[in-house]
What does this fold into?
Amino acid sequence: MILTNNVSLAYGKRVLFRDVNIKFTPGNCYGLIGANGAGKSTFLKILAGDIESDSGTISVGPMERIAVLRQDHFAFDEKTILNTVIMGHEKLYRIMTQRDALYAKPDFSEEDGIRAGELEIEFAEMNGYEADPEAAVLLNSLGIAEELHHKRMKELEGGEKVRVLLAQALFGNPDVLLLDEPTNNLDIKSIAWLEEFLYRFQNTVIVVSHDRHFMNQVCTHIADIDFSKISVYAGNYDFWYQASQLNLKQKQNENRKVTDRANELKAFIQRFSSNASKSKQATSRKKLLEKLTIEDMPVSSRKYPFIFFKPERPCGNVILEVDGLTKTIDEEKILDNVSFTVNKGDKIAFMGKNGLAKTTLFQILAGEMEPDSGTFKWGVTINHSYFPKEHSDHFKGEANLIEWLLQFAPPKEGENFARTFLGRMLFSGEDALKKISVLSGGEKVRCMLSRMMLSESNVLIMDEPTNHLDLESITALNHSLIKFQEVVLFTSHDHEFVSTVVNRIIEITPGGVIDRHMTFDEYLESSEVAQTREAMSQKAA
It folds into this structure.
């Protein structure tokens, strides 16, 4: 259990939250949501004791342990992977290192023996003899192979380090678990395992995530940071979203009814106030008007960009034909004889463990890379646009946002057009004059989506477009692709995003391509697909 008492935090005049009083109880998983900059990660840091609030206190149950998913990928570089995980339980790790240091002494004394015995008792009471096996199980479940467990953290790739730090947070059955974006760099299999782990977890979890499916699977409550306060709702993310939209609509309808009634009364008063026979009725209506109150609608920090892809023309009958594409990078065969045909109305999610394979395929189709062999042909009616996973090269230089956007706008358009367009993508006022070199990850993504909208393409190629976006922007993009009537080729780790958009799955494996017209959930549950994948793996081996 963790309890907040009148917790407040502000940066200058900007209040993130004020007088927060919440009791986070065992057996529940709280999804912490809010717009970018609302203070989600900051609130987790206050709960963890990493930073102090302006006022208020944080209370944790007696003898309870808080575990945190750490974001510093270099803090444990000199530690072995297994020990990094065990360090998640600081007291256990401290006892273990003290005990090992005693046993390593060349002049082990009687006093050392007594102390070692005391440490052994504490170690056993904390289930220390199961520490290595438990850490290994967590690592294996998160895709860190056993042969890596005794290597040092600095030998791992960035994505692998994130998985080890997640295992560190989960280790040792903590009483309170604080997770900030735990699904980052996890594949679908690892995310499913984490969902099951948290579903069975009996203690308190508070999690920040942009993955709506994950939130729906694990959250029993939603803690929403908005209007400078944190409100807790029972239910998962979808329930919160539907309830909040309904509540907003009800308040708007109530205000509309009050406004309409007020206008009726004003019209009557204006018409008959000077009429002697109606003066009493006019006076009565003035009193009624004074009693009417329109409820102030507080300004939400939650904003949804306007994302709408409008193709200049529909696709013809021939979209794309891919035949035998092969590509080797740094002596590793990334694509091997990849063939498929894209048809009208296809919305295809490209899957597969090797992210480089999907990125390479998209770069070839977009004309940014040449294949070693094989061919691809776009139809004559096709105008395609490409959203690359890595797009930092598009934001170099000293141009501001207006200047950057006008590169892709119709020639006749000027600053007013750019400001209007940028405003709909949440760059209003002075934000439109920001230098492109200082934009955040989410801002760059919104810019790249703006560029795609201006292209008026009938085929959209998107490589992980939801990376760096907040929930509101992901929702807006999701809805826009559902409404888009033409062709989409994309890859994403966002379960909800994929499952609501696709009608076809193409999985790139080392042994070939698995191509199925089915929903994403059908693909995940298909035993036939699993058998085909296994056969292709054996073929490749």
The chain has five domains: 1-64+182-235, 72-174, 255-291, 320-398+439-540, 400-434. The mean pLDDT is 92. The first strand starts at residue 2 and ends at 11. Residues 320-398+439-540 form a domain with the Rossmann fold fold (CATH 3.40.50.300).
